[in-house]
Each structure stands twice: as structure tokens, then as C-alpha cells.
Amino acid sequence: MSAFDPLLSDYCTHQQTANELNVTRRTLDRWEILGEGPPITRIGRRIFYRRSSLQAWLRARERKTHEQL
């Protein structure tokens, strides 16, 4: 990250994350409450998701097709 990059350039907003994962914001909220969703960063009332944390969360959810949940 250079000195000219915005401070939050490595983060997605709540809505951007919902769009990327093809889920609703409400689903993200539910996952947060249940402790199942990706890690979040709160700044005031706003929620942000670090891109690298989202990718790690997705990798952790990978499974073989014949495995059960």
C-alpha cells in the first residue's frame, strides 16, 4: 500500500460484501450473530470486511463434494 492509497482500500463495505457473496445484508447480519460469518471490522456503526479475511474465510469453508456439513 502506498502513501496515496485510501486507508480503507483493502476493505469492503457491508453491501459490497453481500453483493460479492451473492447474499443479502440480512444474511451477513445473521451470520455475524451466529458467529458463522467472515470477520468484521467496526468503525462506529459501519461494518467493513478485509478482503484477505474474506478470502481466508471462503477457503476455510471449502470441502469435498461427498463430505457432509
Put the structure in a nutshell.
With 69 residues, the chain is an alpha+beta fold. It has three helices and three strands; from the N terminus they run E-H-H-E-E-H.
Morphology = globular
The strands making up the biggest β-sheet line up spatially as: 1-3-2
Instruction: Please tell me the CATH architecture by its name.
Output: Orthogonal Bundle
Q: Distance between termini?
A: 38 Å
Which class in CATH terms? Mainly Alpha
| Rg, Cα atoms, Å | 14 Å
Which structural class do the helices and strands define?
A: alpha+beta
N-to-C order of helices and strands: EHHEEH
Overall pLDDT score: 89
The proportion of residues forming helix, as a percent range, comes to 40-55%
Main beta-sheet annotation? 3 strands, antiparallel
The tally of strands reads 3
CATH topology: Arc Repressor Mutant, subunit A
Low-confidence segments, given as residue ranges, are none
Number of domains: 1
What portion of residues belong to β-strands? 15-25%
* Total of helices: 3
Structural write-up:
- With 69 residues, the chain is an alpha+beta fold.
- The chain has a single domain (11-60), classed as Arc Repressor Mutant, subunit A.
- The chain is built from three helices and three strands, in the order E-H-H-E-E-H.
- A three-stranded antiparallel beta sheet has the order 1-3-2.
- Strand 2 (41-43) and strand 3 (46-50) form a beta hairpin.
- The longest helix has 10 residues, at 25-34.
- It is globular.
- The termini are far apart.
- The mean pLDDT is 89.
